[in-house]
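Example record

One chain of 394 residues, shown exactly as stored in the release files.
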Amino acid sequence: MLKIINCKNKNYKNKLKIFLDRRRSGKIVDTSIVSKIIKDIKKNKLKALIKYEKKFGKNTKIKPTQIEINKSIKTLDPNVKKAIDFAYSRIFKFHSLQKGKNIKYVDHYNNKIEYKNVPIHKIGVYVPANLPSTLLMNVIPAKIAGVKRIVVANPILNGKLNAAVMYAAKKCGVEEIISCGGAQAIGSLAYIQQVNKITGPGNDYVTKAKQLVLGDVGIEGMIAGPSEICVVADNKTELNEITTSILGQSEHGENSQCILVTKYKDLIKKVQKDLSINLKKLSRKKTILKSLKSHGLIILCKNDNQIIDVVNEIAPEHLELNISNYKKYISKIYNAGSICLGKYSPMAVTDYNAGSNHTLPTLGSAKFSSGLNLSEFYKKISYITLSKKGVEKI
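Predicted structure tokens for this chain:
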């Protein structure tokens, strides 16, 4: 089911790069229509947005009323509300620690230079159909940073608002919601709502749209595209922990990437077999199967140095070091969006309520960027006040 690269072969690095580049190239999914959608919405605004929502989302109403939002929230299971409240608290506490510090420098001529964190005025957040967790991950840090206006774009599903997303929006104090998805939602945020910056993960169409509007608006400093996981396992790792992480990530979408890295050959056969057995029990097995066949990989390494090199080349969105002695790797792995350490830190928990952010760099962008954090919602401005004597000296 999963392709295997054996690092005994001298050309294993080239094979890995070819495997990764095929997905990163963006050629697997035809996104050529995105350019047309963005140009149309930029020119024709709401008329064009409604046209594409009708076509792709079977939706004609872009702005839900407060009555409709409240009605949707009333249908939500109280246990889900409690889970969202719990996640909100943890995410808020962790991200509050990220507040930026202003800098002030005064020289002996009384020249003063200040460097201040100024919140971006207006943010657009893209939230995929049924992911209240994404709303929390993007809106909470924006609120902590002091962003005044936040517009959430969330597609309807089967003609209905998502009750959990609506509740999360209310919990975060979001006052503006538009019911649209895909590339047209990004076009709307950029050219109808006219936000200053757009954040939030999405599929290939959303990712392409964000790249096309960049320049007219800002986007995150990463590529928050289709999801990824890399699991490093040894002969003491529980088999079930490996397969559930791989299956849980691959069900996100056909373009999700799941990679297992190990030094143990016997483990490979066990994982392949266990994946096949458990796949049959899952409702999204067609999506999972396509994902694993196209973007699933097992890498058999000879030693620790190869594992480190391989992981840094993959630069995964999520990395699980589910091994007995993960400490020997930590300081040497520098390309990853987030790193889950040890058997009790499954990646799935970080998607919801561990407290860290799940909007993370994909498609190799972990080589140069970080996951979503408070810095994404600030501009940094220099303020210069020179004295009479000071300006003469300078």
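Notes: Residues 32-57 form the longest helix (26 residues).
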